[in-house]
Amino acid sequence: MHKVFRKRKRQGIFRYTRTEQWAVKDVSFEVALGETYGLLGPNGSGKSTLIRILSTLLIPDHGEVRLMGHKLPDEERAVRWKIGRVSVDAAFYKRLSARENLLYSAYLYGLEPKRAEKRAFDILERLGIESRRFSDPLEEMSRGMQQKVSIARALMINPPMLLLDEPTTGLDPKSKRDVQRFLEELREEEGTTILLTTHDMNEAEHLCARIGFLAHGKLVAEGTAEELKEQAQAVTLEDAFIKMTGESLNDDKEEGGKT
What we know:
Rossmann fold, single chain, 259 residues, alpha/beta, 6-stranded mixed β-sheet, globular
């Protein structure tokens, strides 16, 4: 698939120039049912753009997207019932409690409130949030706790596929471990298909059955962690990434105005 962001830059009072920036260029990959697939790349590599396309928030300029048996954008309504999305900067009504935010999401999906509340409560407990914090306003919760609420929200409809855009970035070590352990259990118990974007090599190697390297909007290599290291003749996954992409995961570039 392809995705281009077009911008106008003012050159004078009545004069503008147009520029194009490739966010995703000729990217093609498949994720098997029940698989955890990782997309590794620095900021600006196209990871978030891909997640936004798959979650129906963006439409690709060219190419075909099929997700859980449905074609995008033609069947986006059906897709929205089969995916849960977690982004690095989840949006909430910060003055409302975790409970109120989650029940509002349940209402939007037409879920029965009591069943939805019980499911959300169970997920948050498994993620390590104490029940007494369930009624605290989001603005009083830590970054890690807010991200756990975001995961619970994404799982309200028990979707067969999760789209996770750097879900553990910025979390403290304990919160990161809690989230990673929960994702492993979710895949094993529910058979959930997970697409995970990250720039954390250890996380990718620990969680993902297969990994794709993204650079400059292109998928330059994919395989298991061991296959990628072997292809690059590298000792570590990070060394393999640098050799195969010519980039460091710490590179910080703009991706369509938003990373």
